[in-house]
Amino acid sequence: MELNTKPHATTQQRRVYPPLVWIALTLGLLLPPTLLAKVSVGPARLMLTTQDWPPYQEYSQPEMHGLALDKVKCALSKMGQPYQITMTNWSDAQLRVQNGTHHGFFVAAQTEERDEYAKLSNTIAEQKTNWFFGPGVSPKLDELSKVNLKFSAKFGSNKWFWLKRNGYNVVKQPRDAKVLLKLLKQREIDVALEDELVFLRELKQAALPSDYFNHQQLQTDAMGVYFSLRFLKQYSGFLESFNLAVSKCED
Fold first, then answer.
1. 45 and 121 in a common domain
2. Closest of 213, 188, 191, 187 to residue 202, by C-alpha
3. Shared domain check, 184 and 160
4. Relative to the CA of 75, which of 115, 122, 144, 245 has its CA 20 to 30 Å away?
5. What is the pLDDT of residue 61?
6. What are the residue ranges in the chain where pLDDT is below 50?
7. Strand 83-88 vs strand 46-51: parallel, antiparallel, or unpaired?
8. For 108-146, what is each residue's pLDDT tens digit?
């Protein structure tokens, strides 16, 4: 299914997982003279992939939008770069870039694993990662609580694997923040690790106050678009042009 970026374009497809939900957005804009030389740095159509992860990117009929997605679209528009964006689950999104069927995935924080096959762009959005503590759970973590408490995060996410690598007692495999919130509220887990904006949005959707759970910030990470190293080798000037375009799309 292709969705033209003109304002009047519509689609009747609903978001369903599985099967894969995908939306193609194609641009064909005239470039200003100062950017005409940049046309050759990109492919005929840039193939990007992402996950449904509001408020950063989401599919709300009839279009995809979000804090990160809108900035990516803005940058590609300024470059005059035609593109297609596929929305799928997060593990599949990254695998598509690893196996070469897509050029990049977003929005993501930097990790050593991803650096092995892709390179991160300049910042598209900042992520504040918080601990959220279940009812009655003390908001204090130490080496003992790492093994005595039950932790979880969105399955397949960098946060889920970070918990595993660092010796936390990780249980459950929630597919999204909505399920993660339900598990925490029902005390099937004791502590959740999630993006602040994502989790607060789910609290609002569930008609719960923002301070329903005690929470503490773990860290803040810059997130961007990860482009395949193979792709960047073929189009050596692309990342520089994309980063420049991103800088012109600041809020």
1. yes
2. 213
3. yes
4. 115
5. 73
6. 1-39
7. parallel
8. 999 999 999 999 999 999 999 999 999 999 998 999 999
